[in-house]
Amino acid sequence: MKPRSIVTALGAATLMGAALSAVPAQAEPLDLQVESVKFDRASVAVSSLNTVPVTITVKATYKLGKADQPMYVELNSYESKHTYSTQVFSEPLKLIDGTGTDGTWQGKVNVPSTADGRLDVGSVYAGVLDRSLKAKTPDNDPVTGVSLAVTGLNIPKITRKLSVSPVPFGKPYSITWQVLNSTTGKPYGSRLKVLHPKGDACLEAKGSAGAVLTNAAGVLVTQHAAAEADKLNCLLIPGTQAPIDSHIQLVPRPGIVAATPDRTSAKVGTTVSVKGNVAGITYGCTVNLQKLSGATAWRTLRSTKVSVSSRYTLPAAITAKGKGTYRVQLPACNNTLAGVSRSFTITGV
């Protein structure tokens, strides 16, 4: 489904980023159709870990709407001057006029400083936000052309330092997180409320339940069991509907490659299968069969992808008599560093 551009004015004046109406024809009628979206202002300034509430009003029709039907809005700061885009969700919008099938909804968007730049309306959704990865996507109508100018000041920056990097397989580790003022490069000077869920919960956080406090320097040290290295690790600054800032990553892992030829000698013109596995979460990563050329140069002969079971098979064509030295090389992929197998020889006869 292609987004529909919605364009109007805020009051009688044309204000940048304010808002909203005019709906092009759809190829197919939607259960939810947005007629207009409007902010109560054209721009907002936000500092540090604060948020500023901005009123957003939506006019829409919804065939499946109920008497007390809520709505919510997804917004994205794709042109943010922050290091990555920030996703923001409105508070639940309440019906203020009309009916649940044809009405006007209104509520607040708590705008964080991390949305610095331009905050664009992405879609309007029927219902209340559920960030669970298993949640069914509710009826929605994409929107373009509606934005709010955001000036972010003293924007937070989350840093991470591992106790060891890359993290060895089978070993526990710790992470030292710190929340800094990106403008000054220094801590905010007080204990800050943060979340540090693990795994998929990093992507599902909503609200501040389970929050803990950093020290006055904005530092929190988290301890992790060995198995947690293959799950998402994160630190979040909580917001009401979604975090206002986050640092979510897999920890770096060493590139460990095993390779074994099914024969150590073969006739010229035949093929030897080289099989092996790559440690860690490396499904879809490329591995290269290489042959030593001269004293130190390695030449790639064939390439393939690692399977979902972390295994691979590469054919080594025997083209000449004599002993050849081979290895399998893994370029850096996702959170796994580059690595090579032990070299092995195959003799052409």
From TrEMBL:
It comes from the Bacteria. Residues 1-27 form the signal peptide. It comes from Kribbella albertanoniae. This is Uncharacterized protein. Keywords: Signal.
